[in-house]
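Below is a filled-in request sheet from our internal design queue. Each sheet records the structural input a requester submitted and the sequence that came back. We keep these sheets so that new team members can see what a complete request looks like end to end.

REQUESTER: design group, bay 2
PRIORITY: normal
MODE: inverse folding
CHAIN LENGTH: 459
BACKBONE (tokenized):
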């Protein structure tokens, strides 16, 4: 005869098992519905499954290196960090242009609002907070260090609608002036354009024994360092003026933010520099700002590829400077760093790296502000590893391993779950596993030796 404790444990275990089954069945039905309607919720769930369990940092380091544990102390530290970051004392001074009156800009129409709202509702859900700061952790570094996070501004739906309307007005004015080297935040362009260009350039240079000197430039906290005064000057220079310029400036005039963790909020603090990450208008403002820096710093250097001279490749703030020799590359880097400094930006000497494609070992000593940049034999650019020998075989092996790891991580949470329909599983497979395996496959030159094995059967 079983003891009362044993019976109670078995009963509790049965209740828990039934509850889990019910939850998974509900989850499966919801996923099936979202999959049929191509709902944004389906892709949000897919992204959560792909990331896996995210460990939250319950402690952070203070500015002096002390470990903080209480929620109030942590919120205070985050406020201190963002307040210092977004209110630097060394911002270049500039005379802001007057946003003169103009009859060019029309009123916002009902049809325009309807189209923008439908576009936003068809994508990501908006956050309810206005001016709150969120944190998106970097893939590298200690999660308890504030500088390893990227701040994200949470906007209300009305704020996003207004910003999107302004973006649709600004982009047509600046689009014809943006150089071909910039592929970030531009319709019909993406990382593949830059990856393919760099790959073909290196492949052709290796074939004809032409050395290519490269500098992969990293800008410190690029979005958070854009000075507002210089940005208004740049927009005016690119044809954004009158009521439209005033409307853009209104998003940043007397701007204030706060940090929120759970229900605990910090005091408000002013924001004098930086673009609002998460705002629909910010990407086009940033590429215009970067284009002015790139345009002012360009010289006669660059790598000749057919009839084209390619001095740089730019994807948002990911910059690759290219030159046929170390001296030419140093000249280009010096001008670029100087223009960045004049615009309130800063080149990271610890994260920027030099690399040389050549049939023999060649030193490439580059300096920024008296500091020597490290030289490497390989560099991961936009998610793809490029080497000084121009080889891609290790890159293929790396993606096969990454795809196998994705399949292993999803096996118990997706593959084995009977509550998820075959259609849902295939949708998740196509949206997570296949892109992981085939990212950058357009660059691969396959041989029989390099044939990709059936990694989907690994577990």
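RETURNED SEQUENCE:
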């Amino acid at each position: 005869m079983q003891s009362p404790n044993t019976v109670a444990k078995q009963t509790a275990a049965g209740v828990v098992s039934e509850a889990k089954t019910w939850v998974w069945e509900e989850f499966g039905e919801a996923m099936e519905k979202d999959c049929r309607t191509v709902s944004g919720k389906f892709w949000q769930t897919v992204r959560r499954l792909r990331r896996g369990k995210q460990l939250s940092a319950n402690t952070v380091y203070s500015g002096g290196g002390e470990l903080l544990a209480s929620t109030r102390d942590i919120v205070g530290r985050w406020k201190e960090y963002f307040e210092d970051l977004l209110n630097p004392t060394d911002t270049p001074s500039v005379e802001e242009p007057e946003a003169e009156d103009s009859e060019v800009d029309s009123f916002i129409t009902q049809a325009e609002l309807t189209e923008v709202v439908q576009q936003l509702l068809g994508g990501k859900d908006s956050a309810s907070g206005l001016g709150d700061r969120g944190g998106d952790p970097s893939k590298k570094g200690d999660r308890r260090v504030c500088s390893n996070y990227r701040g994200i501004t949470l906007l209300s739906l009305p704020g996003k609608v207004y910003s999107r309307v302004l973006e649709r007005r600004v982009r047509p004015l600046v689009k014809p002036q943006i150089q071909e080297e910039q592929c970030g935040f531009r319709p019909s362009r993406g990382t593949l354009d830059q990856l393919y260009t760099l790959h073909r350039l290196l492949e052709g240079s290796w074939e004809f024994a032409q050395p290519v000197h490269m500098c992969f430039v990293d800008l410190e906290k690029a979005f958070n360092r854009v000075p507002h005064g210089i940005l208004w000057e740049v927009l005016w220079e690119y044809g954004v003026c009158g009521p439209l310029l005033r409307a853009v400036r209104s998003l940043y005039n007397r701007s204030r933010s706060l940090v929120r963790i759970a229900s605990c909020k910090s005091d408000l603090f002013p924001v004098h520099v930086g673009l609002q990450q998460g705002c629909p208008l910010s990407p086009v403002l940033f590429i215009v700002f970067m284009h002015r820096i790139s345009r002012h710093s360009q010289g006669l250097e660059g790598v000749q590829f057919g009839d084209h001279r390619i001095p740089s490749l730019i994807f948002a703030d990911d910059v690759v400077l290219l030159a046929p020799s170390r001296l030419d590359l140093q000249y280009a880097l010096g001008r670029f760093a100087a223009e960045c400094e004049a615009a309130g930006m800063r080149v990271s000497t610890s994260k920027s790296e030099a690399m040389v494609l050549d049939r023999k070992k060649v030193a490439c000593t580059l300096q920024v502000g008296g500091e020597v940049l490290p030289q490497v034999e390989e560099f991961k650019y936009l998610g793809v590893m490029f080497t000084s020998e121009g080889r891609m075989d290790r890159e293929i092996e790396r993606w096969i391993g990454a795809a196998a790891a994705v399949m292993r991580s999803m096996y118990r949470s997706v593959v084995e779950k009977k509550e998820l329909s075959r259609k849902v599983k295939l949708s998740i497979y196509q949206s997570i596993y296949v892109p992981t395996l085939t990212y950058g496959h357009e660059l691969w030159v396959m041989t029989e030796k390099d044939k990709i094995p059936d990694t989907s059967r690994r577990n």
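SHEET NOTES:
- The chain is about 45% helix and 15% strand.
- The chain has a mean pLDDT of 82.
FILED BY: M.R.
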